[in-house]
């Protein structure tokens, strides 16, 4: 509450000083590591995990931080905070531990809120990755343009940050950008020693000789893309339990559902190529990833699917619905969804849109609590409900108690149905105005299934 009475410029100075003091205290540990920062609206955590696994497959020791985990070498633990990007003291401490453990790389999930609060300051990034961009945290940033500008600061920092020499090797500053995203050109404006773009579909690349693996990495005519190496994926196939695509002569077969995971895998592969890791190694690492915690995580397959996913933005939820439809074996099977929306006066605009998408794609909707923070939970649910067309409002139930909502969805489910529990993923608690409640959708779903 105190923040409301402090001028924004003073808060900015405070956050900036805090970040640099933390970096100084822990000896600017990022200078001793190759640091990869992954930003975007969706897919950041999965991309961090995929990059980490590829680097490990190559033989490197890696530290990584995301909403999924804190990982330092062999040690892993679930992220214990309700925060994707930790505060500067925690983040710098983790980087210091990464150095002490003998890791060569650090892979960090970088959020717009983290950048806004200068948590990235004092970290010397070497690789910046853009997964995608869509409207999110609009109220917090004051508009989509400011949200995008916050993300862009990660890339702007590459140009002026100190070039490192590690183990006698000069480390290049590299930008890796999703060219399929309509905002790509904004991120291509910034200078980097090397730029890698990635996107899908170019049949000529699939026919390239195995002895000419750079044949797809051609400079483009656009000034922003001049000299950039472009990685094209072809023959994309989406199945109910896997995705596959080809880059040059290498086949990538990944046992994960959802077209969005193809984009995440391609982003991770582009990072691998920027680090001179061959395609076969990247493909082998990705093939071993059979699930991502809290991301299209299947809790049960029979007699009906129960799936937990973090999706909380309209683009992310729409892709989850598309993937769920692929799991239906007949037109009689139904999709049942349980979700809410975060409070704290954030992103009011998307609540009706989430309701509209659910009505369009699902057969039964149960609206519930997510993280109300200081808002009235019923008000949040009402705003979501307002987006449901009048003729489809009869498919909606409102059950604010999230456990009861999940229990209700499981009672309604018939054989062949798909039950989606959205918005929380692996988050360890629910946040109310006056308390935090320990929570995990996956644990609750399993408990309720056992009772049934």
Name of the CATH homologous superfamily of the largest domain: Mur-like, catalytic domain
- DSSP summary, beta strand count: 21
Give the biggest beta sheet: 11 strands, mixed
Structural class: alpha/beta
Helix share of residues?
Answer: 25-40%
**Arithmetic mean pLDDT:** 88
Question: In the CATH hierarchy, what is the class of the largest domain?
Answer: Alpha Beta
Poorly predicted regions are: 202-223
At the third CATH level, what is the topology name of the largest domain? UDP-N-acetylmuramoyl-L-alanine:D-glutamate ligase
CATH A-level architecture of the largest domain: 3-Layer(aba) Sandwich
Question: Strand order, biggest sheet?
Answer: 4-3-2-5-1-6-9-10-11-12-13
What's the tally of helices?
A: 15
Overall body shape: globular
Q: Indicate the multimeric state.
A: single chain
Strand content: 15-25%
Whole-number total of structural domains? 2
Radius of gyration, whole Å = 22 Å
Distance between the termini: 43 Å
């Amino acid at each position: 509450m105190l923040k409301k009475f402090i001028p924004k410029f003073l808060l900015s100075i405070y956050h900036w000083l805090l970040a640099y003091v933390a970096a100084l205290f822990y000896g600017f540990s990022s200078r001793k590591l190759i640091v990869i920062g992954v930003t975007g609206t969706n897919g950041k955590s999965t991309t961090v995990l995929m990059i980490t696994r590829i680097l490990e497959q190559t033989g490197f020791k890696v530290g990584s931080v995301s909403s999924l985990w804190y990982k330092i070498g062999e040690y892993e633990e679930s992220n214990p905070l309700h925060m994707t990007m930790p505060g500067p003291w925690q983040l710098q401490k983790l980087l210091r531990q990464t150095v002490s453990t003998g890791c060569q790389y650090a892979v960090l999930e970088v959020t717009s809120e983290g950048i806004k609060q200068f948590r990235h300051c004092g970290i010397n990034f070497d690789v910046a990755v853009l997964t995608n961009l869509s409207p999110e945290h609009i109220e917090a940033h004051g508009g989509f343009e400011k949200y995008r500008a916050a993300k862009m600061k990660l890339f702007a920092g590459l140009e002026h940050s100190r070039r490192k020499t590690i183990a006698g090797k000069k480390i290049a500053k590299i930008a890796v950008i999703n060219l399929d995203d309509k905002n790509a050109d904004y991120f291509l404006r910034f200078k980097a020693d090397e730029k890698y773009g990635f996107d899908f579909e170019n049949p000529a690349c699939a026919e390239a000789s195995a002895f000419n693996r750079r044949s797809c990495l051609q400079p483009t005519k656009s000034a922003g893309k001049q000299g950039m190496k472009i990685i094209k994926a072809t023959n994309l196939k989406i199945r109910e339990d896997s995705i596959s695509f080809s880059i040059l002569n290498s086949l990538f077969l990944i046992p994960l559902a959802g077209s969005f995971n193809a984009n995440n895998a391609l982003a991770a592969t582009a990072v691998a190529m920027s680090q001179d890791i061959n395609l076969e190694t990247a493909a082998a690492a990705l093939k071993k990833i059979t699930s991502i915690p809290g991301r299209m995580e299947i809790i049960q397959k029979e007699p009906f699917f129960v799936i937990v996913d973090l999706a909380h933005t309209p683009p992310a939820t729409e892709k989850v619905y598309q993937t769920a439809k692929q799991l239906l074996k007949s037109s009689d099977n139904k999709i049942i969804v349980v979700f809410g929306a975060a409070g704290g006066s954030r992103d009011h605009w998307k609540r009706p849109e989430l309701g509209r998408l659910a009505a369009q794609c699902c057969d039964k909707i149960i609206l519930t609590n997510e993280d109300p923070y200081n808002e009235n939970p019923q008000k949040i649910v009402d705003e979501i409900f307002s987006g449901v067309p009048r003729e489809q409002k009869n498919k909606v139930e409102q059950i604010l108690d999230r456990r009861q909502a999940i229990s209700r969805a499981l009672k309604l489910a018939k054989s062949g149905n798909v039950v989606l529990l959205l918005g929380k993923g692996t988050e360890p608690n629910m946040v109310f105005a006056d308390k935090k409640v320990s929570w995990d959708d996956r644990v609750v779903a399993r408990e309720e299934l056992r009772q049934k």
